[in-house]
Amino acid sequence: MLTPASLVLVGLFAGGVALAVIQSAGFFAPAGEHAFTLQHYAAMLLNREFQLSLMLTIAVAGIATFLSAAAGVALALSLRRIASRWPILNALVQVPIAVPHLVMAVLLINVLSQSGLVARVGYGAGFIGAPNEFPVLVNDPYAVGIIVAYVLKETPFIAVVALAMLARIGDEYEALAATLGASGWQRLRHVTFPLLAPAVVSASVIVFAFIFGAFEVPFLLGRPYPSMLGVVAQRRFTSIDLAERPDAIALSVLMSVITAALVWAYLKLMRYQIGERPTLF
Amino acid sequence: MTARRIGAIVTATGALLPLVLLTVYSFSRNWFWPRLLPAAWSSRAWVYVASPASEISPAILTSLWIAAVVAAISVAIALPAARVLAWVEFPGKRAFFFLLMLPVIAPPLASTMGVHGMFLRFGLTETVTGVILVHLIPAVPYTILMLTGSFTRFDPDWEAQARTLGAGTLSVWRYVTLPAIAPGLALAGVFAFLISWSQYLFTVLIGGGQVITLPLILVTFQRGSDEAITAALALVYLAPTVLVFVLMAKYMRRHA
Asked: A38-270: what fold?
């Protein structure tokens, strides 16, 4: 029963990772490598571009995850009662989750660039006099465009998770706290947030892991140097110089290890939840 | 009250504004700085996208074909697996779920680079078959996770009861199991389709630029800075997603 699934999971997925490990450890025949070595890992870890990319990737993933979690919880709290009266909101809130990342990137280039829609509104309102007076928000040094793209994509995801959790918690705890004299803020701070936390934290781990390995958005909205890790791996893999390919594979193996650790942490966190299987998206 | 209204407005804007903006861009002409609206409207982009002579319709057909095959294979593989995972306890089940989660949560970059060399040897790089195989890596686990949910809500005793009443394996499947899991099955298939449909990087890595799908064309036009055609392509790229949401909203209203 599990055999066909295992063919894909073990054969293609795990097998692929195993081949990647072998090829990155000195057995990459196309580049004439036939002996065990960790030089590709050493080369990546000591490489300035890799170090900058790693810091950029962690920073972007961390900031975007934090902002998405905060905005997602706020959105869920404001939607929780109105969504039962307007069920269409439950469908609408999920739309951005399903918008492909490429489309989000294309949209942001049109909206946020120096001659984009936001800049034009700024010109119309008299804030700026020319496109170059508008801050650089796309392909910019602070990765603002990338972070905005992920916050727009992941806030609804966190909101959906939080809404599901809120529905499961129900109103009783908060009502009880209210009868005991808790103010609105106290109910949020001491009742709602602690009950929401496990679901939101585990969803945030997923969001972080996803952004960590991302490609399309930093590919279109990022700068050539330093790029996020996924872009660096792709660039080196597709380089004309075959000798760069084992470096790319070593990098993708390192990224897998970090991701696997995050997923493991996610599953650990999920155990504290009401004993349910993780649901995704 | 106001907080609720803000949430509802943000949600509606987030869902609808992208579609509105892309539609305006796709019909725009000479939309130069600092105009807030296009100076002129034109159907040029859509005529180009629909023209059989352009490179776009073959790319759309390739994307559709790859996604349909990926969806069919994913469902066929996931059905028996999900049944077992939902109903049977076995050693290593946790590990199996861990393995399932990995490619769903993070794009399987290492796997794709790893199998590239093997695909090269079997002549699968730069072929549609190779691209389908690599799309299965994220699609199959996702489909299994979704279908496991469907089977968890289905009581295996229902099958046993039907068998007691004399139903054969096929009848049990046809009249008991299939109707019960049909909505989940359809949804899982649709999501497998969408996962394949939205792949970019792995199509490029395995297809080597020879298998041209819609997202590849989209990136080409984005790089070429033709805003109208890029927006039209983005809308075509979004179409299956929007369709799925409209159908899901209708279904939810009917069964609410």
From this structure: MetI-like fold (1.10.3720)
